[in-house]
Amino acid sequence: MADLRSAFLNVYSQLKSELLQDPSFEFTDDSRQWVERMLDYNVPGGKLNRGLSVIDSYRLLKDGKKLTQDEIFLTSALGWCIEWLQAYFLVLDDIMDSSHTRRGQPCWFRLPKVGMIAVNDGVILRNHITRILKNHFRGKPYYVDLLDLFNEVEFQTASGQMIDLITTLEGEKDLSKYSLQQHRRIVQYKTAYYSFYLPVACALVMAGENLDNHIDVKNILVDMGIYFQVQDDYLDCFGNPETIGKIGTDIEDFKCSWLVVKALEICNEEQKKVLYENYGKPDTANVAKVKALYNELNLKGVFEDYESKSYGRLVTSIEAHPSKPVQAVLKSFLGKIYKRQK
């Protein structure tokens, strides 16, 4: 995996250098330096799980056969398109949320001299995806399918972000809008499609598969994405900050978290009053009251029950799939997230 990761990072350098020499734009030294700094700051800094999953999924679809150099390059290029998509979402997301840090460093728009130029940088990041696809896939029979796939998933993610933003409108903090159904819709569209379905869909398209024949795979991956986000919501409150690498702020931020919607579902009127009075307030005393209520409702136990049932349901769905290579891809994804601590 370490070799794969370094090969993957080498492809980033190659794609970056092509983009910085793009013949459609006449770069000056200043503009080239700006784009290079912006890319290095925002694209390769995460865990790269989504991008690496394209290579991994494609290898499993090929029954674990050794990939050619060309296949490694093309699957890496598609993986980087997903990382570019992620960077585009995060740069704009941080502005919308007025965030301060991302991946342990200041958000891009918080840097001196960047500010709202970051909005345009987000647009450039999005456009780079189509440049990469054009440069390396235009001659492939599945080129249009890739363009369609990225457009579709971007639309779904942006729409999920919209539901999230209008549900948590500042000055309109209303817990009665929150429900498990609403939580599922936000997560399905905002996270599951691009984080879980897109890497596998890229590998399937490259392997010559028609995505219309794999609706069941999409449904399983979306379910997995929802399970992953529920874990995330749980770890935000109950995880060890040193392990997960950040201090959770879902309670202060009035997030439509799985914990709060589950609490609303099972609490009595008295407990509901505590939630309404304390959820979404930045004061540590308010946060402590919400956490105390979560413990009183035994949300740790409720989550453990949810986790084991979700895992069982996912394994059953995966094993019902007729293709062993597709089963291997799905099991590999599930194995990476089951009972994770960060």
Automatic annotation (TrEMBL):
<dbReference type="InterPro" id="IPR008949">
    <property type="entry name" value="Isoprenoid_synthase_dom_sf"/>
</dbReference>
<comment type="pathway">
    <text>Isoprenoid biosynthesis; geranyl diphosphate biosynthesis; geranyl diphosphate from dimethylallyl diphosphate and isopentenyl diphosphate: step 1/1.</text>
</comment>
<keyword id="KW-0152">Cholesterol biosynthesis</keyword>
<dbReference type="GO" id="GO:0006695">
    <property type="term" value="P:cholesterol biosynthetic process"/>
</dbReference>
<keyword id="KW-0460">Magnesium</keyword>
<dbReference type="InterPro" id="IPR000092">
    <property type="entry name" value="Polyprenyl_synt"/>
</dbReference>
<dbReference type="GO" id="GO:0004337">
    <property type="term" value="F:(2E,6E)-farnesyl diphosphate synthase activity"/>
</dbReference>
<dbReference type="InterPro" id="IPR039702">
    <property type="entry name" value="FPS1-like"/>
</dbReference>
<keyword id="KW-0444">Lipid biosynthesis</keyword>
<dbReference type="InterPro" id="IPR033749">
    <property type="entry name" value="Polyprenyl_synt_CS"/>
</dbReference>
<comment type="similarity">
    <text>Belongs to the FPP/GGPP synthase family.</text>
</comment>
<comment type="function">
    <text>Catalyzes the sequential condensation of isopentenyl pyrophosphate with the allylic pyrophosphates, dimethylallyl pyrophosphate, and then with the resultant geranylpyrophosphate to the ultimate product farnesyl pyrophosphate.</text>
</comment>
<keyword id="KW-0153">Cholesterol metabolism</keyword>
<keyword id="KW-0808">Transferase</keyword>
<dbReference type="GO" id="GO:0046872">
    <property type="term" value="F:metal ion binding"/>
</dbReference>
<keyword id="KW-0479">Metal-binding</keyword>
<keyword id="KW-0752">Steroid biosynthesis</keyword>
<keyword id="KW-1207">Sterol metabolism</keyword>
<comment type="pathway">
    <text>Isoprenoid biosynthesis; farnesyl diphosphate biosynthesis; farnesyl diphosphate from geranyl diphosphate and isopentenyl diphosphate: step 1/1.</text>
</comment>
<dbReference type="Pfam" id="PF00348">
    <property type="entry name" value="polyprenyl_synt"/>
</dbReference>
<dbReference type="GO" id="GO:0004161">
    <property type="term" value="F:dimethylallyltranstransferase activity"/>
</dbReference>
<keyword id="KW-0414">Isoprene biosynthesis</keyword>
<dbReference type="GO" id="GO:0045337">
    <property type="term" value="P:farnesyl diphosphate biosynthetic process"/>
</dbReference>
<keyword id="KW-0756">Sterol biosynthesis</keyword>
<keyword id="KW-0443">Lipid metabolism</keyword>
<dbReference type="GO" id="GO:0005737">
    <property type="term" value="C:cytoplasm"/>
</dbReference>
<keyword id="KW-0753">Steroid metabolism</keyword>
<protein>
    <submittedName>
        <fullName>Farnesyl pyrophosphate synthase 1</fullName>
    </submittedName>
</protein>
